[in-house]
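Data deposition worksheet. Section B asks for the primary sequence of the deposited chain exactly as it was used as input, without tags or linkers unless they were present during the calculation. Section C holds the resulting structure in token form. Section D is free text for depositor observations; keep each observation to a single sentence. Incomplete worksheets are returned to the depositor.
Section A, Depositor: J.P.
Section B:
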Amino acid sequence: MNIARDSLEFGSRYPRLSELIDLEKMRVDRRVFTDPQIYQLEIEMIWEKTWLFLAHESQVPNCFDYFRAYMGPHSVFLWRNAEGGLQCFANVCAHRGATICNSMHGNARSISCEFHGWSYDSFGRLLAMPKERDAAHHPDFSKEKFGLKSVPRLENYRGFIFASLNPSVPSLLDHLGDAKAMIDLFVDSAPHGIEILPGASTTRFKGNWKNQSENSLDGWHADVTHASYMMTQKNRTKRKDQMFMDGSLDLSAMYQDKSMESGFYNFKNGHASLWSDWPNLEQRPNYAQFLEFKKLYGEEKAKWLSGRFRNLLVYPGIYLIDHLSTQIRVFRPLSVDETEVTLYCVGHRGESPQSRNVRLRQYEDCFNAGGMITADDYIEFERCQAGYDNAGHQWNEFSRGFDRLQTETDAHGKALGIKAELCGSQFEDEGIYIGLWKEWLRLMTSD
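Section C:
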């Protein structure tokens, strides 16, 4: 596919791509969520060109461990070889193109295709095939030519494994930029390291992937969309319901107590972080750890490590979330109007059984397929997708907080040593979307 970068052949209905994004007025044309041709260009110019998260190293800790993942529409799998090195292969047999890794994760010294039985070792080399002696292949056939195909780029930052289908993509460190500081907080908040807890929740919604990329940066919607959750938490507290008290987190004070500090940061390459002080910190897992951090590093660093609500979008397809639960949220496009989302609960190595229990209960209460928060969001994504095609307003507007936008990094960001492209002083403000839409347009119109 080779679509002209800024002159799609839309006909008279469509302007140029650059006219669909109006960052000055803080709005985007709703056609970017609904047009199949734009979607196909996104696959080519975003999902096949930049860095995508695959897994955390705790999911492939040992030799011969493998883990299946996706890079946009493309199935791949990580495999730790016999020497402990990590490789990423296209999930396709070199013979006739069958998917070869058909389990989400496991441990295997070799993997065999279930179609014709070609088998490969952990370095991706073709080992054997059934009835090999009698195969009578073409004279040019050589087993060395038919190994598994490696993904061009694979890099690891603080245990987060990323890959790219683009061999000339800039380094992962350059891609992450100052957003690395937020990843560092996610990792350093666990003195003995983080780990992905067993299990995952994978769901789909009938909406465009950019609904999800925006939503976890949206501090404005929670007290409306998740009003039933907030009411439930208040009722539990009033009843002193011990069954739920250890797992409940009341967000309502974040919207009612104006003395609490909050805000957002836009980083280069579309990454962004939303943050707020916690109103009821004592209900979080490892509250005692916050007190220890406070003694070691002072109030500001302790708050950043474990005393603040933090969402980080690593553009285009992963969120590191540390609020109602600590989780990794990975999402990928399936079509212009369908998206898949996978949630992983993140634990702290060596934490007490009580802290682990609180962590799990909070995760289950809010997220997963049966959590009170997840379903609320998916319903609204689908309602938005249905509304985009209706006659009426052309633009999605996101100008709340326009007069509060700052190009100078605030004091809290400077304490982390970051340099943000934009920042805001209220977590409900929508200027946080500027960075991701700016990056969308850059990637979509690049050579």
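Section D:
The chain has a mean pLDDT of 89.
The longest helix spans residues 372-388.
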